[in-house]
Design brief:
Oligomer: single chain
Bound molecules: zinc ion
CATH topology of the largest domain: Aminopeptidase
Strand order of the largest sheet: 1-2-8-3-9-16-10-15
Number of helices: 11
Shape: elongated
Order of helices and strands: HHEEEEEEHEHEHEEEHEEHEHHEHEEEH
Structural class: alpha+beta
Distance between the termini: 22 Å
Number of domains: 2
Helix content: 25-40%
CATH class of the largest domain: Alpha Beta
Radius of gyration: 25 Å
Largest sheet: 8 strands, mixed
């Protein structure tokens, strides 16, 4: 398996698939088709069925069950790398039997004081960048893991497995690509994105999200004759913000803490507008955060004896756990697989959105699994080969029919 996964991985990371913000097309960059075509070829070489490459750059395929299993399980990884840092001309640096010490790259170094996890990787094989690009382990480690799992089953027809559906998707890093996924056509009972880090971690809780717009009307009067008359909307806006709990600002939160994040302020004397995003894993606590906004509005309007403040709150998306918990088979199956391999699975809440959260809302329960990659979204990105292999074993175990 070692050679297979490394071969796939090194081949994929060398293909530039950077996505780009603010494009009107999906995929946002045509070069994502370069990897898509290579994946199609690899799927053809493995003899998969129903191989498709859609106009929006989704690669899908099926390895039909070799037993009487009727279960359809999907495995999904994205092809693009982040727009923020170069993914062009990636030169992966494979270090076997890593000594646990500082790795010098061009202009930067990976050192165990800054990255303490490096010490745990002593003796293993790590793959780093040359210091000038991302590695693209996010998410080509996921692509390679899925392909290696397929490679295993194609070469082990004696091991019974479910119907294995795979999808390689565009534009995850800029969001929105997954909206073009044909969920019904994918035909799965549930699926997994393979797009995390830690191999034994499962993520199926993300934020419930809402946004708030606070509009403030002031009383705009010539400052020379303003006494007792003027109400400066910008100052009222500052007052409003001060009424919200300080410890619920993003910079004071982590884990399961929710937050209210002030994303923009516009204001003159006559009017002002504050825009916030509200996030919480717990829907009840999100309601409490919303109430804080309404209470602040009431307080200010009473204080001034005028309806100066208006609050408009809109819900954006839900925690996928709400839907998954109605039928947690997908999470249970992943946990069992990890346990069978001798590890204790951990579940960690996601403090953002994932393609899986969207898919879950589109009707396909999709928790997220690890890949064996580290330090995503910059030149420090790297992967551990043994951890990637463990992920492949977990995927094999999930697809196995018992
Ligand atoms: Zn990713």
């Amino acid at each position: 398996m070692k050679k297979t996964i490394l071969d796939y991985f090194l081949k994929y990371v060398k293909i530039d698939t950077m996505s780009k913000e603010d494009q009107n097309t999906v995929p946002s960059t045509l070069k994502q088709f370069d990897l898509a075509k290579v994946l199609v070829k690899d799927l053809e070489d493995l003899g998969l069925k129903d191989i498709k490459l859609s106009e929006h750059c989704f690669v899908t395929a099926l390895l039909p069950s070799n037993c009487n299993s009727k279960l359809n399980i999907g495995f999904i990884a994205h092809m693009d790398t982040i727009p923020g840092f170069s993914g062009t001309n990636v030169k992966p640096n494979v270090i076997e039997n890593y000594d646990g010490k500082t790795v010098k790259l061009k202009g930067i170094e990976l050192n165990p004081i800054q990255f303490p996890f490096l010490t745990n990787l002593k003796g293993k094989t790590i793959i780093t960048t040359d210091g000038t690009t991302v590695l693209g382990a996010d998410d080509k480690a996921g692509d390679a893991n899925i392909m290696t799992m397929l490679h295993y089953y194609v070469n082990h027809p004696e091991v019974p497995h479910v119907n294995i559906h795979v999808a390689f998707t565009p534009d995850e890093e800029i969001g929105g690509g997954i909206d073009y996924m044909d969920v019904e056509g994918f035909g799965c009972d549930f699926a997994y994105t393979v797009d995390g880090g830690n191999p034994i971690e499962i993520n199926y809780e993300n934020f419930n999200a809402a946004s708030a717009i606070v509009s403030i009307k002031g009383v705009d009067i010539h400052p020379g004759s303003a006494k007792g008359q003027m109400i400066n909307a910008s100052l009222v806006a500052m007052e409003f913000n001060e009424l919200l709990p300080i410890n619920e600002r993003p910079e004071f939160t982590d884990g399961y803490d929710g937050f209210n994040h002030l994303t923009s302020v516009e204001g003159v004397c006559g009017e002002a507008k504050l825009t916030y995003i509200l996030r919480n894993h717990d829907l009840k606590l999100l309601e409490k955060q919303k109430n804080d906004f309404y209470n602040a509005k009431e307080f200010i309007n009473k204080k001034y004896g005028k309806d100066l403040v208006e609050v408009t709150i809109k819900d954006s998306y839900l925690n996928m756990a709400t839907i998954i918990n109605e039928d947690p088979t997908c999470v249970i199956r992943a946990k069992e697989a990890i346990k069978k391999l001798g590890y204790n699975p951990v579940t960690t809440p996601i403090r953002g959105g994932t393609d899986g959260a969207k898919l879950t809302q589109m009707g396909l329960r999709t928790p997220n699994l690890g890949t064996g990659g580290y330090n995503y979204h910059g030149p420090y990105e790297m992967a551990c080969l043994e951890e990637m292999e463990l992920v492949t074993k977990i995927l094999i175990e999930i697809a196995k029919e018992n």
